[in-house]
Design goal:
The complex is a heterodimer of chains A (393) and B (469).
Chain A lengths: L8 E8 L10 H16 L8 E5 L8 H7 L6 E4 L5 H14 L5 E9 L24 H6 L1 H9 L3 H19 L13 H5 L3 E3 L2 E2 L8 E10 H4 L7 E10 L3 H4 L9 H14 L4 H4 L2 E3 L5 H10 L8 H7 L15 H5 L3 H16 L13 E10 L2 E10 L4
Helix pairs in contact in A: 3-15, 5-6, 6-12, 6-13
Chain B lengths: L2 E8 L3 E4 L1 H7 L7 E4 L6 H13 L9 E6 L10 H8 L6 E6 L4 H14 L4 E7 L8 H5 L3 E8 L5 E10 L5 E2 L8 E2 L2 H24 L8 E4 L4 H10 L22 H12 L5 E5 L4 E9 L11 H7 L7 H7 L18 H6 L1 H4 L3 E5 L5 E2 L15 E5 L5 E9 L9 E8 L4 E6 L12 E12 L2 E10 L2
Parallel strand pairs in B: 4-5, 4-6, 11-12
Antiparallel strand pairs in B: 1-7, 1-8, 2-3, 6-7, 8-13, 9-10, 12-13, 14-15, 14-16, 17-18, 17-20, 18-19, 20-21
Classes of the chains: A alpha/beta (393), B alpha+beta (469).
């Protein structure tokens, strides 16, 4: 009977590049930048690593995209892709390999070079098909949520825009304190509200950045972790949920939830023993690709009651100094979103916070961090939820 | 008795006020509006919509042949009629044929349908057209886009075929070579005096002689004319009064080439009464004159929307720049978006019932309607209990929507809607022929067959939503 991996895998080092328009760096540069930081942090050499999980959405095929660049000498490299959930799922698979006893020290690295594509938004590699169904832009896929949420909970669209703007405002405020963030400036509410419409009602300031970047984590079994450092970060639970596409085909779905987030959250809470997320979690890094996404995540992860997330957002409950800081590092909105790297970047914030290295956004005595990573769209996605802590038990 | 069993038409939603052409080039233009196919419409999609307009209350499985007439077939090699047959959801053991290259192709197809009816076959005859005149030239003013469709057979005939007279001559007045987009013409005096007036007179007089009818016996003469002036002159000369002349649609739609006389015939049938005689006269390398006599059955047939309905449903705000863009007559800045990949033809073929007939499936175990078809039920996960379920024609409403300014389009912004069908089934699709400010949650929509994109000259067709009239 499966018992989960709570407290059985531990992170002993992490690295993360500055995210953004890194026109002067290629994928190799970005990976070296993240890996150097991670190795130094863990106090080990590259050759000490037994196996690699390389997560990328579009920046290279196969483990070779990693091994050719990093010269990892015939060691195992798995290339993993799970849309925008790539990073966290890559981390999950790496954890399993050490818990299973297959390897002692492994690395997961997510890396993405989006700004070499020359496009606005994302290029999605697609299977061959008849291509009759609309290939919607990412913002339009998430825009459906805003009017549906407003309608269901009795907000007028102006109120809804203010809730969305409040989320963007918070994440930019947090990101302004983060030297690695793509956008390091606070943005006034008024500018967010007046930003040009991309896909109604989403304005450009409701959308996350398109970025280059890489992030990595070095993982061992818990019993070995103290060999490397006294203060490792323990994996409490990590689960993913891949949706059946029910929501986009069935009229019962009302566009105010992503069931995948709910299911992945429930599974991760069970594994980690979290019973009251709103109070037990110290910080959460969630997939704020668009502002309404963050709003429904509050409710799907039970940070807020259904229909109450918008009030909590307006009350500042998710601010840096609120009851449950969400996206203290700026989130996708401000830190940027190099697809494969994002899930690992989310864990990196817990890593910094646990070690007191979060600078001006340092929280007081954080103990449990959560990362929620979503690939796809609210009505059909794959979602990962990872929970980490700085103590065993 | 053989003849017309049903009729339908289609006129694109968007109309260009000809004054915009004058604003652009300065020269005087005729009054009125021309119907302009949307950027995602062509002669096939308009023809398919006209055929659906005709067949809404008919059994599509009773159709034995589909003929499509046009001079603007999207492909030179690849039949259009087979696509329209797929949209109509006909049987597979039917005849399909395209009638191309002549403005007379519409009446040729009708005559072929009449011949087939004599052999007991029901033929859907469709004519659709989307021609281009050179910018700033007279034909750009004249031309409009549209389609008409007729089911021809020998049961429940609403307009009996009486007789016809065809004239054929290798007369060269208008032409378009196989690598050209725009219509050329010889000087007008030659075209009219030696061609149009001559052949119309010959065919009309021929059919009058064959039938023993005289001009006064007809309630309407449905006479193709390059412009109303040409039409009026020859009709008068042949002895028809102006009240008998069926309006050429020039002011509301424009000259729709091959589809013009058929669309006028649909308009005439909308107003026809039992025992009316209608004379259909086409033109192009000769002329076909066909006499129909309206029967009592006319009172029992109604197209779904009809020519009149489509003409009234319009938007006249487009300017000349938009027309140029939709017809890709100017090169516009490409979107900074990834290149569209072509459709997989094997997948398109496997999914033909979904793509053309607009079929989903319904689970026999739990009754959930779902689209696109799949073997495993989204609701109860039962496998292989699916039954084909046609969503086309089901009432549908917008569940939620967004107006997307980022998506690449020849007519931005793009409206994307979640469409829920009565009885079950949901589709996320584009909403077109709709003002972005007019979209509302709960608004009623219907499905329209459209050209989605072309890559490697493979044209991909599928369905979009449009507001219900």
């Amino acid at each position: 009977m499966a018992i989960g991996i709570k407290d059985r895998a531990a992170v002993i080092g992490m690295g993360c590049t500055k995210f953004g328009e890194r026109y002067d760096r290629n994928l190799e540069d970005l990976m070296i930048e993240a890996i150097d930081e991670g190795l130094e942090d863990a106090g080990i050499e590259f050759n000490d690593i037994d196996a690699f999980w390389f997560g990328t959405f579009t920046s290279g095929m196969a483990g070779l995209a990693f091994s050719n660049r990093m010269k990892s000498h015939y060691k195992p490299v798995t290339r993993l892709e799970n849309m925008c959930c790539t990073g966290l799922d890559s981390f999950r698979n790496a954890c399993y390999s050490v818990v299973a006893g297959a390897y002692d020290v492994v690395m997961t690295i997510g890396a993405e070079k989006l700004k070499d594509g020359g496009y606005s938004g994302l290029e999605v590699p697609a299977e061959d098909s008849d291509r009759t169904l609309p290939d919607l832009t990412a913002p339009s896929r998430f825009a459906f949520v805003a009017p549906a949420y407003a309608h269901k909970y009795g907000l007028d669209m102006q109120q809804m825009k203010e809730v969305m703007a409040r989320i963007a405002w918070k994440n930019h405020k947090n990101g302004a304190l983060n030297p690695k963030a793509q956008y390091r400036a606070e943005v006034p509410m008024d500018s967010i509200l007046k930003s040009p419409i991309i896909s109604s009602p989403l304005g450009v300031m409701d959308c996350s950045g398109v970025s280059d970047g890489a992030a990595c984590a070095i993982i061992t079994r818990t019993e070995d972790a103290k060999k490397y450092r006294k203060d490792p970060m323990y994996v409490k639970g990590i689960q993913i949920a891949a949706g059946p596409g029910h929501s986009e085909k069935h009229q019962s779905y009302d566009f105010t939830t992503a069931f995948e987030t709910y299911y992945a959250g429930q599974a991760a809470y069970r594994e980690a023993g979290i019973t009251h997320p709103r109070t037990q979690i110290s910080l959460a890094e969630v997939h704020d690709c668009f502002t309404p996404t963050e709003l429904i995540i509050y409710e799907d992860l039970q940070f807020s009651e259904r229909g109450q997330g918008w009030k909590d957002a307006m009350d500042g409950f998710f601010d840096l100094d609120g009851g449950l800081p969400v996206n203290p590092d700026g989130g996708l909105k401000s830190f940027g979103h190099p697809i494969g790297a994002s899930g690992i970047r989310m864990l990196y914030e817990s890593w910094l916070q646990f070690h007191g290295r979060a600078g001006k956004r340092q929280l007081e005595n954080p103990q449990i961090g959560l990362a929620q990573n979503l690939g796809g769209q609210p009505y059909s996605c794959v979602v990962g939820v990872g929970i980490v802590g700085n103590e065993l038990g | 008795m053989v003849g017309i069993i049903g009729f339908g038409a289609y006129v694109p939603f968007n109309r260009l006020n000809r004054a915009h052409i004058k604003d652009t080039f300065g020269a005087p233009v005729p009054k009125g509006e021309k119907a302009v196919a949307n950027y995602d419409e062509d002669s096939i999609t308009m023809g398919a919509m006209a055929a659906l307009d005709c067949s809404a209350h008919l059994d599509s499985k009773s159709i034995d042949a589909v003929y499509f007439a046009t001079t603007t077939a999207p492909y030179k090699e690849k039949q259009s009629a087979a696509t329209i047959a797929g949209v109509l959801d006909t049987r597979l053991d039917i005849r399909t044929a395209d009638f191309c290259d002549s403005l007379r192709a519409g009446s040729s197809a009708i005559l072929a349908g009449v011949d087939a009816a004599m052999q007991d076959l029901n033929t859907m005859v469709v004519a659709g057209e989307c021609r281009l005149g050179y910018s700033a030239g007279p034909y750009e003013n004249h031309f409009g886009d549209g389609a008409a469709a007729f089911l021809i057979g020998n049961k429940h005939v609403i307009a009996e075929y009486i007789d016809s007279c065809s004239i054929s001559a290798d007369f060269h007045d208008l032409w378009r070579a196989d690598n050209e987009r725009f219509v050329h013409s010889w000087e007008e005096r030659f075209c009219i005096s030696q061609g149009y007036n001559q052949f119309i007179s010959d065919s009309v007089q021929g059919v009058l002689k064959k039938t023993g009818l005289s001009p006064g016996d007809f309630s309407k003469i449905v006479l193709y004319g390059i412009t109303p002036r040409h039409q009026g002159q020859i009709a008068a000369k042949l002895g028809f009064s102006s009240a008998q002349i069926q309006d050429s649609l020039y002011n509301q739609v424009g000259n729709t080439g091959t589809a013009n006389a058929p669309m006028m015939l649909a308009a005439a049938l909308e107003e026809a009464k039992p025992n009316d005689y209608i004379l259909l006269v086409s033109y192009g390398e000769g002329s076909d004159a066909i006499v129909f006599k309206v029967s009592d059955e006319i009172d029992h047939f109604f197209p779904a929307c009809g020519l009149k309905g489509y003409i009234e449903n319009k938007k006249v705000t487009m300017n000349y720049g938009k027309y140029l863009r939709w017809r890709e007559l100017i090169e516009t800045e490409p979107a900074k978006r990834p290149v569209q990949k072509r459709s997989s033809l094997p997948d398109m073929y496997r999914n033909r019932k979904k793509n053309l007939g607009f079929y989903g499936v319904c689970c026999n175990n739990c009754g959930t309607v779902q689209f696109p078809p799949s073997r495993i039920c989204i609701e109860c996960r039962t496998i292989d209990q699916m039954e084909d379920y046609r969503l086309y024609g089901k009432p549908a409403r917008v569940a939620t929507f967004t107006v997307d300014y980022l998506a690449e389009s020849l007519d931005p912004p793009t409206i994307v809607a979640v469409v829920d069908f009565e009885g079950g089934g949901r589709l996320i699709c584009y909403l077109v022929d709709c003002d972005p400010d007019e979209v509302k949650v709960g608004m009623e929509v219907k499905m329209s067959f459209r050209h989605i994109f072309t890559v490697d000259s493979i044209r991909t067709y599928f369905w979009k939503a449009v507001p219900k009239l």
